[in-house]
Design brief:
Blueprint lengths: L1 H8 L14 H17 L6 H15 L3 H17 L3 H11 L2 H16 L6 H14 L3 H16 L6
Helix pairs in contact: 2-3, 2-4, 2-5, 2-6, 3-4, 3-6, 6-7, 6-8
Length: 158
């Protein structure tokens, strides 16, 4: 499965065949790997971020704890081998309807905010991914506020 996704990422043009769709399991893995890449973007990948990724996978895909941990661990391997974020987001974008991408951005914000701080690397990564997913900066801001509220309560402050 990881090899199949990597083949999509490594095409020389960076494009996947328009007829190629990821299976449900591959879609989960691709999204999880994007979340892992967000968590690792500041060079510090800790248990809080892993826990948030597991929770997002459980919520989004209605999967049991053991499956969310398995998918995250597979995604950690995939993320380490994936050549770049552009091809990576292209695969997610191809398989997630535009109206659902803001939820992906909110999930990414939940991951990067999980450690109670924002780093320049994380902000830069999110700006790139938001653009590549075709989500506006305004909608990303709304998604960030929802993520803060989900993580820290009513006022969105730790």
């Amino acid at each position: 499965m990881i090899a199949d996704i990597l083949t999509l990422f490594r095409s020389s043009s960076g494009e996947t065949d328009s007829r190629t769709q990821l299976s449900t399991e591959d879609e989960r893995l691709a999204l999880a790997a994007l979340l892992v890449r967000a968590a690792r973007s500041d060079g510090d990948y800790d248990i809080r971020e892993k826990s948030i990724i597991d929770r997002i996978l459980r919520e989004r895909f209605a999967m049991p704890d053991v499956d969310s941990v398995r998918v995250r661990r597979e995604a950690e391997v995939l993320e380490a081998k994936a050549p770049d974020t552009v091809r990576f987001t292209r695969a997610v974008k191809r398989n997630v309807a535009h109206e659902n991408r803001e939820a992906i951005v909110e999930a990414l914000w939940r991951v990067v905010l999980a450690d109670d701080r924002r780093d320049a690397e994380e902000d830069g990564f999110l700006r790139l991914v938001v653009h590549l997913l075709g989500v506006s900066d305004r909608d990303s801001g709304f998604a960030r506020r929802r993520a803060q509220k989900a993580l820290f309560g009513r006022n969105g402050v730790a």
